[in-house]
User: Fold this.
Amino acid sequence: MYIDIVPNRGSKPAILLRRSSRKDGKVVKETIANLNEITEDQARAIQRILKGEKLVKQNDVGLEILHSAAHGHVQAVLLALEKLQIDKLLEAKSDNDRNLRLVKAMIVCDVLELEPRHALIRDYADTTLGQLLKLDHVEEPELHSAMDWLYQRKDSAEKQLVQRHLVKSSRIITCLSSCYLNDDLEFNFRLITDDQGCPVSVSAYPGKKLIDIKMFKDHLSHLMETPDLQSVILVGDRIKIPQKKIDNLSDPKEMNWIAGMKTENLRDLLEETSLNPDSMFDSSDLVEILHADYPGEKIIVWRNPDRKSLRKVERDALLNSTIQSLEEIKERISQGKLKKADTIKQRVGRILRGNVLKKYIDPKIADRKFEYTVDHKELNFRESWDGVFAVRTSLIKDLSPLELRNLYRKNLNGFAKRYFSYIESINPAAHPIFTYDKTETNKYLFMRLLATYVEWHMKKSWDPLIMYIDHDSQSNNQNQESIPAENNQRTGSKKQFRIPQSDLTAHNLWSLLQHLATITRNTCRKTDENANASIFIVDCTPNPSQQKAFDLLKKIRVPQLPNKSAAEPEKTQNASNFL
Assistant:
């Protein structure tokens, strides 16, 4: 006998109990009963019983899951730590050093964007972090001691990172920016990376102090035996590298630099020429300008159409809101509710105070009278410069305009400011920094450096799985000679998604980590035994995309130091792969 489930077009399938036999060489089916009153699931269960299978419940097997913890994303970061030889980098005496394990735990929490201290004390049981690093119980004072232990190894670790990366790098990139611990506390920092953007050193200095070139030279000499200052590129915005500092760098020329430029200065520069945003960007979104007022320099100007559209929407919304508020004041005056000029002036002042459009609105106030005009001509002029950015640089021949723009955007805005401008995640309320302190600040920045170093290598190894947006898909020729602005041809620059050449689902870094977090570690025991039943661990099996992510992480290799005879050719080869 067997159960036959017969499809019945759009109706419920017919469930029949049948028996088959062979007659005259043919198979004959005999219907014994119609079982349409049972569900399809019940019918399939009877099918399995008739086939001789045994139906059992979870409790019949005697398996109980006591606890399930996220495991895959923690395992991935710890694998990257192992491949990058963080133990050797920090010169730990043994793998069982508790300070080393606490530092690793804080790095993992930082990469996974958790709160390191509180996550370890409060939530580490939700993941396998404490289990994998043998941290059963963590007290906050231990974490502070581990940070002190880590800071003692800062100089040695940064020297090793320099040996790993800067010796083979064609250029040394130094990003100058600011770091914020809260709305009131700000200090400056300088981040050193290789030509590919891998971070190797970071140090802080007071917020109101500009970078001291002599001090920076001493710092480089401390990290490298014979640093080539001509290969050092300072990258900073218009505040961190002002004109005064550029003058000191230019005569005598000590090192190259790329500095942000104010839009107002660019407009003043182009007043005597026929160039304006409409004429500059009529055929290209990226131009190069040479000007007699800036000898030995060139200016790179580009336009971001998306930023231009966004600024227009924001300005129109603010202007409409401001006009509506001013019209309400006029209405109250016409109703006789506002009479004195001082009261009217006070009400108007509340609306315009802190308003960025204040200088475009001209109010005229008198007793029982209020009028205003909006300078739409000036507003339109300002709108034409929306989304326009400019940098000055001393690199006249070395890099193309596209390379210079990417170097400024990716290293300063895309990397330094993104990963180091806010370090609240490694500065919990339990241990805040209320004033600038060199030791405490550098302690937290160095922890952020190690986390960023690990994250950078993970992202690089996962490049085949990661999807990103290419803003210059048709401008790949890095060695093309720049053309004057008025004759420049449109580069065809546009956004284009770059999707991995794979049948696996495309991710970004964070979604891939979340995808790995679905791999859980389950603590189980048998329920058919007594309360002292043995407990065992069962890990989820990774799916193909998760296994691919782990396989790629296993390919991470620490760069090997080149031979002295081969160092120079390697340097030339890397220069061609810049950016």
Summary: The chain has a mean pLDDT of 79. The first helix runs from residue 40 to 50. The longest strand covers residues 11-23.
